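Contributing new records

If you add data, match the layout below exactly. Sequence lines come first and carry their own label; structure lines follow with theirs. Keep one chain per record. Anything else will be rejected by the validation script.
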Amino acid sequence: MPDITTQVDKQQDLASIKSKSNDAKKAEKRSKKEKKDKKDKKDKKDKKSKKDKKRAGDSDAGDVPAKKSKSSSDEPSKVSVPLVSRSEANAFYEKNKIVVTGGDSYLPFLEFSQTPFGSKILKACSKFSKPTPIQSACWPMITASRDVVGIAETGSGKTFAFALPAINMLSTKHGSDAKRCKKPLVLVVSPTRELAIQTHEQCLEAGRELGISSVCLYGGANKANQLKELSKLKPAIIVATPGRLLDVVENDQAVDLSGVEFLVLDEADRMLDQGFEKDIRNIIGMLPGNTQRQTVMFSATWPKSVRSLADTFLNNPIQVSIGADELAINERVEQIVEVVDGKQKNFKLLELLKKYHKSRKNRVLVFALYKKEAGRLEDMLQRKGYNCVAIHGDKSQGQRLDAIEAFRNGSIPLLVATDVAARGLDVPDVEYVINYTFPLTIDEYTHRCGRTARAGKSGVAHTFFTQEDRAHSGSLINVLKSANMHVPDSLLKFGTTVKKKQHASYGAFFKDVDPDVKPVKIVFD
């Protein structure tokens, strides 16, 4: 007879095994379920992440990616505008007569939202609907750290073409460290006090929201105040004229230029060709080598006489030309040339002012050649009842600044000036320029005419041409023809021969040679 106890034990063991088996199955089922839940969550998360990346990718496709900044306070513009295609870029270049040499892989920024500049930098451009052609073409190259030569008509927005990329570099590369610097990181060299001051003001405007400061160094003003400002602000940007900059660096040792990463030569043709060459060589000799810094040059003219010299300071540059390299006069300027007898110029000027300055409120700029001539015209016009003021080299810097400010705000709408104002004056509402005396060079004529028709407006440049100016007739005729302007028969009578360009110091006896080439000794047997 079977043992009941044994059977019970067996049944208990079977039940226990069955229970354990069921528990194991339940545990395995729970484990599988947990794994499945985890997998589902992971898949869902990955799917969401992919969607987010795709959306971000779609957004990035419409904007040029900005470099990461130490400071995240300046967010890029959130408006997404697709980059232009190559065909659109070519059409833009053709429409604006833009020629790019040395690198054609960069597509222009046709909208502000396509740039890598943050909203705080772009605030300086809030009054403009879109970039100017020189800005559109140059910004992609400069923000890619390439050396650039930009040639464009006067009043085309060249200052912001280099100022915004410079400040963007400071913001993205140095972040909050750019607010106070032991050594300046950006250097802008300008030929005239007025131009330096205006460039400095625009740099301040563009860098204000980021706390990036600029100091302007120029002659004719109190140097002690400028040194005090340097010490107080420790600016990332210095805008200077060559003479005062060298004085502050060499004599006062108040600035160390060995840390400059971004160099700008504004009005580069004059900086390299009209007496500044030695100073510019000295200044650039204090900077890091041209492979350790970025250099950009801007001008309205780019004659052959300065190109080879400019190349020695540049590293594999890209050149952006709008119009001709030799002369680039704004097409919105109506150029009128009147051949007159020198003795009749005073009478002709008064007749023109009756026509052009009838309201006595619109801005008119009269150019004279010499300081005494400008002073004489100022006295004559004031005696005739005109509210006018003059700026020239015999006036103090304070008087010159006051005169320009009065002209800019319209309280004195008639300004007489020598060529100190030909390149440095930026007043958007100058309706008429009168060249009372023709300048010494055709390049200065270009810059004089550029004081009108700025910021997209149109203007008139009326020029008196006399027998004494006949050496410039050929060059002037070429400029008028290139702009489809009327050439008077009386001007053609002086001839169309273009006088050889003379050196500022050596005149017609100058020979353009390479000073680094060693002489060859010739031996006669």
